[in-house]
Amino acid sequence: MRRQDWELLEKYAKKYKDRESGKFAQEMLDMKRGVFVPEEDDEEADEWNNDIFQVAETPFSELEEDTRTAMEELLEDNINEYMIHKDYIPEGKDLQDIADWVLKETNDTFYLKAVPDDAYRRLVDDTVRKMVKEWKDDGLEIKTYAESLTIMETERLVIRKITRKDTGALLALMGKSEVMYAWEHGFDKKEVRQWVNRQFSRYRKDGYGYFALVLKDGGKLIGQAGLMKSVINGNEAVELGYILDNAYWHNGYATEAARRCLRYAFEKLGLQEVYCSIRPENTSSIRVAEAIAMKPCGSHTIIYNGKEMPHLLYKTEKPMQ
């Protein structure tokens, strides 16, 4: 018997000593103490276990009540730990991994061959709902993964954090030289990966960065907009930025996203002013800045790939209450 199996039996024998499952675990411990001393990797013990404990598969719904109760408690513990660690609700593969682990843990502990059935799947779903309700009853906010990514919304857009799964869509967008006009070239795959990693770093450090712009109608990623800490003419500042797929130009999306980002900056982040750096020839971006009431306030030069790039500066301040 492996040491981890021995420890599991001891845990169940102590925790469920008044139930059949706990009594069974204690009987196993008593019997094993006279046969094998637990080792870290005892192949002989595993062979002995396989020879002695040949049991038939048992659907979850046909297990003893105390065993089902123990599994429910394990599900609750692990789902709660997941929610604490991840800060969102387990779904899909993550939830299935938890359910599979609880099943394996139970089988290893009680020498069963319990198999999932509709009752077990219902228990898993019901346990998630139960834990979510408990969190909310305690005044704690918990969301699904997709909901946890969403930062803000507009009438037509979801503005959310970028994920690694967005790399392909971002490459299709940022690979266009006309879209990346301010950088004077389209990005290749390596540059897009670096860009994504830079946003992750900003999210961790500042809580914001460039966010993905996703159409509510259809779910397509059509651009990016957000806020970035910067240094302008030697002074720390926060800048607004926006990048839109040229297939969606002239539809008001950039203005819609930029206006919402400013509101987020003032209302959520408590900023007092926001800047925007724009290439003098980029008339489309200038029109967006002017549409959201940003005013010209000077200029500065950005060094990119060893090249000096002059930029106009636009600025807006938090509205007076």
UniProtKB/TrEMBL annotation:
<dbReference type="InterPro" id="IPR000182">
    <property type="entry name" value="GNAT_dom"/>
</dbReference>
<dbReference type="GO" id="GO:0016747">
    <property type="term" value="F:acyltransferase activity, transferring groups other than amino-acyl groups"/>
</dbReference>
<protein>
    <submittedName>
        <fullName>RimJ/RimL family protein N-acetyltransferase</fullName>
    </submittedName>
</protein>
<feature type="domain" description="N-acetyltransferase">
    <location>
        <begin position="157"/>
        <end position="319"/>
    </location>
</feature>
<dbReference type="InterPro" id="IPR016181">
    <property type="entry name" value="Acyl_CoA_acyltransferase"/>
</dbReference>
<dbReference type="Pfam" id="PF13302">
    <property type="entry name" value="Acetyltransf_3"/>
</dbReference>
<dbReference type="InterPro" id="IPR051531">
    <property type="entry name" value="N-acetyltransferase"/>
</dbReference>
<keyword id="KW-0808">Transferase</keyword>
